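call fold target=Succinate dehydrogenase membrane anchor subunit
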Amino acid sequence: MSAPATDAASGRARITARTLRTDRWWVPPLFTTLGLAAFVIYAGIRSFVRTAYYVPEYGYLTPFYSPCLSDSCVPGSAHFGTPFGELPGWIPLAFLSLPFLLGFRLTCYYYRKAYYRSVWFSPPACAVAEPHGRYTGETRLPLILQNAHRYFFYVAVLISVINTYDAIVAFHGETGGFGFGLGNLVLLGNVIMLWAYTLSCHSCRHVVGGRLKHFSRHPVRYWLWTQVTKLNNRHMLLAWITLGTLVVTDLYVMLVASGAIPDLRFVD
């Protein structure tokens, strides 16, 4: 079989046939699209409904509503006060964190690959023709905004700290004494996975080890770089796991807050 022709303008292979593949190459992109769409729909709905997002008895706050900083928040859910007044229904209560978290995910190197291939079909797969007439990469609007990923990373670290605080506060609940139940384990597990995903980010790898010409002169940063690199090797897996833990955490808090299920308590 002769090699595909090359587009001189972009340097990319041109395939005259719809595909040269004989396998079901479209299955992985399909499942990726369905998985991302399911999360976006669920998270979008839950971010706006403003119900069953906080369990006052145990201090469980879903990450989709953290931090809650307005007078619209139910009593006890505003762990950092309410510097903002009542918010109209079309503004999510976690309006300060959600845009940055969305930006962090959208510009993530793995998610870029996922939706470039699965949603935009650029490219859909090896040896599959692209539907686009030309390729400009991330050099023009809107994709040039992908280069802001490192700045979203800094905010994501701050939000991970806030989520960690939420998980710790939940061990004391409404009474202020120590106690924990299944909800605490769910919140804690979610936070651990969020930290793993955030620290496995390519930007984090660059922060701890980038621009160094001699690792031998910076042993601490070299050790940090090797640890982040180990996480970075699992960045794709962690990206999907954290979508799952976010949904499970929110779903559990919603079910307990609505009274659909009781929280399994271990220590009260």
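return ok
The first strand starts at residue 5 and ends at 6. The chain has a mean pLDDT of 91.
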